[in-house]
Write a sequence for this structure.
């Protein structure tokens, strides 16, 4: 049975813009807090910040560590949700910040957060598929790789690169992901994920 704290990830729907704003201001750099309108661009050109949109950014140093990326994500993910798919992959591996903020939630969010649309995945996730990074809940590396492989919203070489990075950096294999998929045959996109990991096995085994 899920614990009450993990039930909150899947059931709480009380996120409000004010809550998001209060969390964001403790983590992100906002243009309104800088001395002038060109300050954000200057900081970006110096490599000090990574822009989210014209009015917000996060420190490049934060993007260089697992905990730093989780801290950035926690400022963007609505309360009561968990990071998943592309956002979770960014937390686990780094690289360019994703175009969408992917979350597990039973709520729907239409307004962009700092220029990024929230993509909601309404899924029932077992407690052992989630991990906590500071204040943020995020799908485990193995669950993240499986979700990406089953997701029909992305594809091509870039998706393979991201999945491979998750597997390599966290000492996982396609066989381990196939085992997880075999235990959950009703996941949406299950056949797609199985085919992808079977295709990846040769590169990992060779």
């Amino acid at each position: 049975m899920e614990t009450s704290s993990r039930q909150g990830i899947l059931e709480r729907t009380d996120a409000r813009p004010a809550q998001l704003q209060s969390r964001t201001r403790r983590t992100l750099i906002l243009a309104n807090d800088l001395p002038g309108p060109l300050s954000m661009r200057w900081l970006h050109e110096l490599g000090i910040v990574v822009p989210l949109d014209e009015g917000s950014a996060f420190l490049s140093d934060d993007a260089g560590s697992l905990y730093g990326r989780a801290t950035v994500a926690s400022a963007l993910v609505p309360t009561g949700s968990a990071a998943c798919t592309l956002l979770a992959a960014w937390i686990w591996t780094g690289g360019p910040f994703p175009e969408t903020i992917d979350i597990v939630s039973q709520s729907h969010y239409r307004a962009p957060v700092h220029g990024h649309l929230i993509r909601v995945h309404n899924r029932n996730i077992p407690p052992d598929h989630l991990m906590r990074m500071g204040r943020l809940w995020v799908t485990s590396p193995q669950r993240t790789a499986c979700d990406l492989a089953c997701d029909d919203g992305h594809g091509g070489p870039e998706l393979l690169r991201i999945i491979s990075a998750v597997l390599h950096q966290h000492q996982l294999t396609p066989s381990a992901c196939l085992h997880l998929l075999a235990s959950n045959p009703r996941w949406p996109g299950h056949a797609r994920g199985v085919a992808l990991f079977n295709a990846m096995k040769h590169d990992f085994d060779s």
